[in-house]
Structure formats: C-alpha cells, structure tokens
C-alpha cells in the first residue's frame, strides 16, 4: 500500500460525520496514513418523505456505494442497520467494529421515564418497528400512548420535545453516545420491551472487493462477535424478505458463563404498527464460527416466525 491519503466516504449528517471520524482515527492509527473525510449527500438525506414511503432500503447507502465504485473514495462507513441485506459482489464488507449500545432510548420532557409518561402521551419516531413494539407494550400494560411519525436528524427530533410538540422521542442509544449527547437520555428501553433494528449500534466499513491490501488493513478493525451477531440478525431480516424500514426487530447477544462465551441467543419480532398483533420468538445455539453458521441461525428463526404468520404483519414485503 502506498502512503497516499485514504478517502473515506461519509454522509453529511452530524452523526455520520462523528461515526466516520472515529473510524478515520482508527484507520490512521492502524496504517499510519492520513484519512480524509469526503462528504456525500444521499437520497435519504434530501427526501422529506417518511422512510417507509421511500422504501427505506438503501436510501442512505446507494450514493456512498456509487462513489466507491467510481473510485471517488477508497472506503465508506455506514450505519449497519441502513445496509440492504444483499451484499453486492463488487464491494466487500471489510470490517464490522465492536458494537455500541444497541438499545433504543427515550428522550422525554421533564426527564420522564417511558412508563411515567401521561395518558395520551405523544411519542415521535420515524420507525414502524419502534411504533409496533411501543404500541404492543402499551396495549399489554394498559398504557395510553400516541405514536407520531417524524423525520429529521437528532437535533430536529429532540427539538420537538423541547418545543412541547411531543412528550418524547425514541432514538438509538448508539447515535446519541457517538455525538456526545448520551446525557440527554431520560430512559433506556429494555430489549425485552423493544428489540432494536437488525445491526443497530454497529458500523459497516466497506471498500471495493478487488482492493485486497485495503481489505486486509481495514480487517484489523473487525470484531468477530459483533460480525456474527449482526450477520444472524440481518439473515433473519433477509429471510423475512423485509426491507430495513419494515417493523422487524432483532438482536443476537452472547450468553457467557463467567468469562467464557458459551452460546448466542437470537431474538426476533415483527408486528403491526398499531401493536395489535406481534410474532416474537427466540433461538439459542453455539456461537457461530462461520458466516454460514450465523446466516443459518437467522434463517431458521425467520422460518419459525413465518410459520406463525409473520409475513402478514409486515404490510408490503420488499422483494
């Protein structure tokens, strides 16, 4: 590898820039090469439509991938939950670094917890997955909430609460932590209440498949447990034939006996956005040693969910 500057393609949002900055620093430490951030605007950044309406799948990713294929950037950083489940042959998922906190969180007025919100509380989220699970929880626990669809970056969403338009908004813990706003969280939503999006909290570092030297260098940032977990989660999503804006939650976590990791548990949920019907299942097995093993774990759980009627709860299925 030569010593020329590496160009890292990133979305322009504050969160994307923060995530890419962390990766740029790590790559610089690994390779000794300077890393320059190249800002790229994606369709998902410019469209004002709800993500569910514009398809969700790939809207934040396609422009970055095009820049990679045109040679305008050397590698790109994505929020892994934004990646379509099918990996293009021309691109390599070179690294999945150690995952941040995968949970969803509430930022509410008056520092309220989710269960302390008043009757009829207006909770903002752009995610059908979050709506489905929050409404299901509210139904089963006698809570009265009104989930309101919103778009916008973190600042915009939190401002809805500060301005009194909403009682609370739901965001990803990882995003707030990465931009240094974790102290604004008023409640962490247990994964027993709301399962995160497949891959939530993880980053994906991508480059062209023919750049063996760069793949090897970036591979130093890969965390094998994180990769196995998100592979299982994304395999479940793919087997459900659901896009990344579908109301599907999934989380693979490691079950340890003391210091020794013994097994991986994969949980999946799909539900109607009003929370009236959900299918939620889990499976536990040995920690997958291979990509194929992790993929099989996700496929098997998806098959069980489909057998219990999951397909009918997702609305339009993305093919």
Question: What would your notes on this structure say?
Answer:
This protein has 319 residues and is of the alpha/beta class. 32% of the residues lie in helices and 25% in strands. It has a 5-stranded mixed beta sheet, sandwiched between helices. α1 links the parallel β1 and β2. About 2% of the residues have low confidence.
Give the helices and strands, then pairings.
Layout (H helix, E strand, L loop, with lengths): L5 E6 L2 H18 L3 E6 L2 H4 L4 H4 L7 H8 L5 E5 L11 E5 L8 E5 L12 E4 L3 H13 L4 E4 L5 H9 L5 E5 H6 L8 E2 L14 E6 L3 H7 L5 H16 L8 E10 L2 E12 L6 E9 L4 H17 L12
Parallel strand pairs: 1-2, 1-3, 6-7, 6-8
Antiparallel strand pairs: 3-10, 4-10, 5-8, 5-9, 11-12, 12-13
Helix pairs in contact: 9-10
Overall pLDDT level: 89
Radius of gyration: 19 Å
Shape: globular
| Total number of beta strands | 13
Judged by helices, strands and strand pairing, the structural class is alpha/beta
* Parts with pLDDT < 50 across at least 5 consecutive residues: 50-56
Question: Sheet bearing the most strands, described?
Answer: 5 strands, mixed
Helix coverage percent: 25-40%
Number of distinct helices: 10
Strand content: 15-25%
Oligomer: single chain
Order of helices and strands: EHEHHHEEEEHEHEHEEHHEEEH
Sheet with most strands: strand arrangement? 2-1-3-10-4
Q: Note the gap between the termini.
A: 39 Å
């Amino acid at each position: 590898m030569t010593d020329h500057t590496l160009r890292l393609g990133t979305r322009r949002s504050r969160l994307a820039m923060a995530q890419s900055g962390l990766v740029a620093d790590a790559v610089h430490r690994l390779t000794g090469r300077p890393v320059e951030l190249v800002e790229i605007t994606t369709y998902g950044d410019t469209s004002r439509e709800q993500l569910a309406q514009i398809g969700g799948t790939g809207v934040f990713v396609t422009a970055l991938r095009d820049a990679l294929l045109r040679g305008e950037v050397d590698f790109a950083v994505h929020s892994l939950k934004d990646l379509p489940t099918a990996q293009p042959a021309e691109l390599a998922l070179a690294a999945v670094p150690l995952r941040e906190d995968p949970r969803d969180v509430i930022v509410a007025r008056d520092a309220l917890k989710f269960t302390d919100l008043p009757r009829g509380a207006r909770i903002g989220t752009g995610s059908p997955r979050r709506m489905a699970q929050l409404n299901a929880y509210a139904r089963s626990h006698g809570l009265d909430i009104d989930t309101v669809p919103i778009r916008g970056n973190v600042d915009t969403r939190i401002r809805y609460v500060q301005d009194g338009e909403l009682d609370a908004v739901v965001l990803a813990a990882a995003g707030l932590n990465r931009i240094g706003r974790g102290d604004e969280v008023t409640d962490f939503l247990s994964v027993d209440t709301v399962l995160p999006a497949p891959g939530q909290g993880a980053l994906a570092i991508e480059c062209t498949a023919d750049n063996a030297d760069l793949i090897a260098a970036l591979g130093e940032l890969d965390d094998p447990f994180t990769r196995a977990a998100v592979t299982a989660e994304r395999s479940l999503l793919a087997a459900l034939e659901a896009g990344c804006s579908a109301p599907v939650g999934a989380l693979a976590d490691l079950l340890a006996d003391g210091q020794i990791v013994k097994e991986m548990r994969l949980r999946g949920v799909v539900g109607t956005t009003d929370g009236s019907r959900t299918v939620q299942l889990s499976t536990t097995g040995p920690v997958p040693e291979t990509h194929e093993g992790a993929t099989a774990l996700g496929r098997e759980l998806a098959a069980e969910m489909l057998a219990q009627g999951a397909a009918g709860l997702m609305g339009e299925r993305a093919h």
